[in-house]
Design brief:
Blueprint: H1 3-10, E1 11-17, H2 19-22, E2 32-37, E3 53-55, E4 61-65, H3 66-74, H4 78-84, E5 89-92, H5 94-101, H6 103-106, H7 110-133, H8 138-157, H9 168-175, H10 181-200, H11 210-223
Parallel strand pairs: 2-4
Antiparallel strand pairs: 1-2, 1-5, 3-4
Helix pairs in contact: 7-8, 8-9, 8-10
């Protein structure tokens, strides 16, 4: 079975991500599609296992095999968690709907570490751009602000919100380069501090519900025999 067939015939969940999910789309925005496929269980009995992810077959399309997706979500990977919470769902079969019903089981205070660590890496890249070119890549700066806001709000409320809502125009002004870098940098630092302060009083559990997710995965594997 080819990777393309796995995506075409065994996708259990697919959604739109990127700017269109974040509420930041403009006329020239791409459509970024993400998905989860459930490889038939007998494929795992062979020496050559099915791929853990597939890039394509369409442009701007990327999919994970269910087990790999769950592994990343249990680690509170920001990109994967946001995929689970996309407001633009294009397909969800019965197993996909089970996965969506488990969204809260993946969330934990560990998101503080993963989100902030990812943000710090992106911030260092922006600083390198400023040193080399005199200005950051403004689109990346916008998305870093969005990510830090999402992290803070997740820790405060215990729920992950993907759409930026009322922050849309402020963020798009950053993307257009209309906000001085010093102001953007200050805003990032404030959001990091607010996320740090939200951690201790967060309603999120200390760790995700691994046992519940594993039970779901075992059931999905049985259904795919």
């Amino acid at each position: 079975m080819t990777p393309e067939e796995l995506v075409r015939d065994h996708t259990i969940y697919s959604c739109v991500m990127g700017s269109r999910a974040f509420g930041l789309a403009t006329e020239d925005s791409d459509i970024d599609r993400r998905g989860v496929y459930l490889a038939p269980t007998p494929l795992f009995w062979r020496f050559d296992k099915p791929p853990a992810h597939v890039d394509g077959p369409a442009e701007e399309q990327f999919s994970w095999e269910l087990e790999r997706f769950c592994e990343l979500a249990l680690r509170n990977n920001p990109n994967v968690l946001e995929c689970l919470h996309s407001p633009v769902v294009e397909h969800a079969d019965a197993t996909g709907r089970e996965l969506l019903a488990l969204r809260g089981a993946f969330l934990s205070r560990q998101a503080h570490t993963t989100f902030v660590r990812y943000a710090e890496g992106q911030f260092r890249k922006l600083e390198a751009d400023v040193r080399q070119y005199g200005a950051p890549r403004w689109k990346h700066a916008m998305h870093l602000l969005r990510l830090l806001t999402s992290c803070r709000d997740l820790l405060r409320a215990g729920e992950l919100r993907v759409d930026v809502g009322e922050e849309r125009e402020r963020l798009l002004a950053v993307k257009r380069g209309e906000v001085p870098w010093q102001e953007v940098e200050s805003r990032m630092a404030r959001l990091r501090d607010e996320a740090d302060r939200a951690l201790d009083s967060s309603p999120l559990p200390a760790a995700p519900d691994r046992a519940r997710i594993e039970d779901f995965l075992v059931g999905a594997r049985r259904s795919a025999l």
